[in-house]
Amino acid sequence: MVCFHGYGADYQIGKIIKSSGLIGATIISFNFPDYGRIQNVTDPNMATFGSIQELLPAFYVLKTCFLDKGLDAVDLYGFSAGGGAIINLIAVLNTPMYDAELEKIGMTDADKKKLLNAIQNGIVILDVPLKSIEELIAFRGSAPELEIIGKNYRNNHLRPIDSLDLLKGLSLNVILYFESPDEVLSNREDSNYIAKLRAANSLGNTSVLINSAGGHMGFHMPIWQLYSQMVRKRT
């Protein structure tokens, strides 16, 4: 399982999941380029969130840890902004829009197809995923940092809720979890996100969980209970 951390966090999300004792899989985690940034200290114009540069470390990890080892299945876990990154990563794999950037890290078209197959053979967990910066601004109010990052997502055509449309034709096993109420991201776009994901993933399986289990930052046990059931079925 490869873990995608949230905004302002780092690779230690993998340690948190492993320490729960609930996951038997090998856990791999990594840092996005902006990991550990402190709000209003780092220049938001330098942020890579919402760009292909944000995703390249994840592609590199997946290539070296899975493709180069000949593995044919991988589980992905994404928390908050990491959930948005997973959707964008799969969208990039399923389209040619950033092939030139992927080639720079040695990922060929054949690699893209193999990785898509591996993801479809695994389980994708979206834990309180980021849907859009616009939803966040509507809930928490505008701020220069949020406006800049929101523009970054739009300009790079990597706004997560829009990227769902680019998953069409795939057959994914998805666990989608929304905390209700979500005191960090809000729930304004939850129903729209669910509908778009189910439509795009019509060939696959989308399991939606909505619960109150510790708030946005909580350890959401319903996810791992369902994940364990799905793992047992595939073995």
Give the secondary structure arrangement, pairings included.
Elements lengths: L1 E3 L8 H7 L8 E2 L22 H16 L8 E4 L1 H13 L5 H5 L5 H13 L2 E4 L5 H8 L3 H12 L4 H4 L9 E7 L10 H11 L4 E7 L9 H14 L1
Parallel strand pairs: 1-2, 1-3, 3-4, 4-5, 5-6
Helix pairs in contact: 6-7
In a nutshell, what does this entry contain?
The protein is of the alpha/beta class.
Describe the fold and architecture.
The chain has 235 residues and is an alpha/beta fold. It has one domain (2-8, 19-186, 196-234): Rossmann fold, CATH 3.40.50.1820. Helices cover 44% and strands 11% of the residues. It has ten helices and six strands; from the N terminus they run βαβαβαααβαααβαβα. A six-stranded parallel sheet has the order 2-1-3-4-5-6, sandwiched between helices. α6 runs antiparallel to α7. The protein is globular, with a radius of gyration of 17 Å. 40% of the residues are buried.
